[in-house]
């Protein structure tokens, strides 16, 4: 298969994955479906494990984080573990616990901002609702299910320029007041707002008739843009979609571990809550990965020795140099779209890259004829961070931070190059197939 054809097929699968994954819950469910179809066996964290070499497993936590593991046939001390990490969450608007607002005959929903969202693009978009609901069954048990309205059911209308003449000169957005979405308009005789939980219950029964739900107890619901992911540009050079940061990396890691070498051990971890600090039971700063490794290798000394022969790729999108704002980048470190994955470096350890891990990734990409770029933030500007430094400090594994260059990071619709996700997939696949322990001598 030609490189361009392989890239096109990969990107179409990526678009399908993005469309199926409006929330971290749905992304985790979709990843689990891929893994199950490929023969990975789901483990219950509450049960005892009896893992066998040569087998493939996965676990989920909170329905929003997932670890996939290929238990290699060779001894762990001989090969170490190849790890790749990404995160399932993206900045968005989340519905408040008691969201009902009745204003001038319109029902609106109170929302709060999750993560460092770019707010302006949320106006005038066709938005839907999705997430997880916890409900009481008709036989008085508690259960949870995923929910997705799919159709555009909410919108945040802009204020007309006639009522805010200076909007194009100086506009600030108040997160409490200005981004309250409209859900419906009441009939003239209607005076009370519908209860939002009753709306969720009706939707749950409609999309899942087999579920015997009698009451919604609580919910974690996010707003998302219904516009489908697409290839854009006159030559279709770009991928436009919500949640490229960081579902693109999750998909790359997923597709790569499906091709992993059965002789060596490989691990993919996709965690929730990175955009708000990763501090949760299922976040990268939580115990999920550490507990998995402790159950896999109970002996502390052996575990430390295996980790010393291991390496993690922390995959999270990078800032491509924007042609309208070139001065926001260091002049020697402005990654371009469609020119390959980016190694991210920061002297203050906002990224976990070292010269050794960077050298290994350069070498790995060279073997696959994958181009590589480097990003360093301007010295007078701060930069974001990733799960890389967190996992590296919590687990002790050598780590490199890499990612696909993008525009409009944290917008409701981000932009990446059509070549870069496939480039990163090629590098990640080669990483999972690397047959030896990763040693630096």
TrEMBL record:
Keywords: Aminopeptidase, Hydrolase, Metal-binding, Metalloprotease, Protease, Zinc. Gene3D superfamilies: Aminopeptidase i, Domain 2 (2.30.250.10), Zn peptidases (3.40.630.10). InterPro entries: Peptidase_M18, Peptidase_M18_dom2. GO terms for molecular function: aminopeptidase activity. Its cofactor is Zn(2+). The keyword Chaperone does not apply. It comes from the Bacteria. Its EC number is 3.4.11.-. Coiled coil: none annotated. The keyword Cytoplasm does not apply. It is an enzyme of class 3 (hydrolase). PANTHER family: ASPARTYL AMINOPEPTIDASE. Belongs to the peptidase M18 family. This is M18 family aminopeptidase.
């Amino acid at each position: 298969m030609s490189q361009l054809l392989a890239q096109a097929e990969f990107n179409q699968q990526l678009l399908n994955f993005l469309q199926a994954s409006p929330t971290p819950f749905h992304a985790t469910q979709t990843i689990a479906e891929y893994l199950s179809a490929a023969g990975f066996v789901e483990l219950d964290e509450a049960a005892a494990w009896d893992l066998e070499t040569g087998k493939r497993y996965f676990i989920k936590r909170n329905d929003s984080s997932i670890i996939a593991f290929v238990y290699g046939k060779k001894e762990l001390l001989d090969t170490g573990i190849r790890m790749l990490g990404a995160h399932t969450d993206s900045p968005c608007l989340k519905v408040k616990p008691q969201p009902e607002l009745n204003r001038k005959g319109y029902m609106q929903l109170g929302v709060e901002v999750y993560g460092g969202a770019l707010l302006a693009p949320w106006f005038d978009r066709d938005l839907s609702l999705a997430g997880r609901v916890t409900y009481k069954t008709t036989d008085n048990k508690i259960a949870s299910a995923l929910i997705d309205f799919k159709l555009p059911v909410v919108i945040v209308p802009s204020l007309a320029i006639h009522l805010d003449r200076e909007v194009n000169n100086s506009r600030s957005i108040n997160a409490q007041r200005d981004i309250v979405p409209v859900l419906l308009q009441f009939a003239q005789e209607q005076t009370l707002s519908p209860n939002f939980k009753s709306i969720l219950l009706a939707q749950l029964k409609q999309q899942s008739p087999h579920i015997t739900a009698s009451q919604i107890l609580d919910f974690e619901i996010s707003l998302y843009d219904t516009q489908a992911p697409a290839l854009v540009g006159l030559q279709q050079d770009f991928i436009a979609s919500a949640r490229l940061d960081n579902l693109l990396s999750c998909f790359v890691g997923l597709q790569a571990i499906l091709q992993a070498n059965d002789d060596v051990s490989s691990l993919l971890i996709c965690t929730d809550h990175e955009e708000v600090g990763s501090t949760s039971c299922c976040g990268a700063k939580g115990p999920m990965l550490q507990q998995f490794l402790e159950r896999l290798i109970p002996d502390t000394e052996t575990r430390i020795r295996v980790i010393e022969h291991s390496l993690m790729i922390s995959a999270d999108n990078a800032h491509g140099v924007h042609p309208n704002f070139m001065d926001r980048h260091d002049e020697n470190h402005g990654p371009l779209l469609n020119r390959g994955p980016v190694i991210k470096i920061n002297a203050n350890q906002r990224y976990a890259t070292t010269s050794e891990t960077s050298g290994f990734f350069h070498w790995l990409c060279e073997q696959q004829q994958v181009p590589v770029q480097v990003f360093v933030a301007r010295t007078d500007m701060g930069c974001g961070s990733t799960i890389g430094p967190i996992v590296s400090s919590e687990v002790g594994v050598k780590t490199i931070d890499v990612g696909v260059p993008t525009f409009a990071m944290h917008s409701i619709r981000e932009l990446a190059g059509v070549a870069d996700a496939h480039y990163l997939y090629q590098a990640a696949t080669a990483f999972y197939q690397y047959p030896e322990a990763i040693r630096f001598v």
